[in-house]
Specification:
The chain has no helices and 9 strands. It is mainly beta and 104 residues long. The strands form 2 sheets. The protein has a 5-stranded antiparallel β-sheet with strand order 1-2-9-4-7, with no helix packed on it. Strand 5 and strand 6 form a beta hairpin. The N and C termini lie far apart (26 Å). The mean pLDDT is 93.
Length: 104
């Protein structure tokens, strides 16, 4: 199966997610953020995290910094860096998050 992207349709303030790929080296998840939804800032001490913004416009939070990213966009989050995402639009935002290496 080459296309692993599921059809996710979140309501306002809702975050839906699904695992796209899991191996010994990487975890790739897709997130669908409804209008007003937020991925709370969090940290992965043992893994870097890369957001790929596939559809929509999202505000990415890294520590005390915020930046609006419109698809297509890529955001790199270093190991141990606090990061999150917020949908401040009226449309659904679709992004993937890849963790490397896979947290143990």
């Amino acid at each position: 199966m080459l296309d692993r992207l599921p059809d996710l349709d979140p309501d306002a303030d809702e975050v839906l997610d699904d695992e796209l790929a899991v191996s010994d080296d990487v975890l790739v998840k897709v997130f669908a953020l409804g209008p007003g939804a937020e991925l709370d800032p969090h940290v992965h001490d043992g893994a870097a995290n890369v957001f790929h913004v596939l559809d929509g416009t999202v505000t990415v939070v890294q520590g005390d910094t915020e930046e609006t990213i419109t698809a297509p966009g890529v955001v790199f989050n270093e190991r141990g860096q606090s990061h999150g995402a917020r949908n401040g639009t009226d449309d659904v935002v679709i992004l993937t998050a890849s963790l490397c290496p896979l947290p143990g």
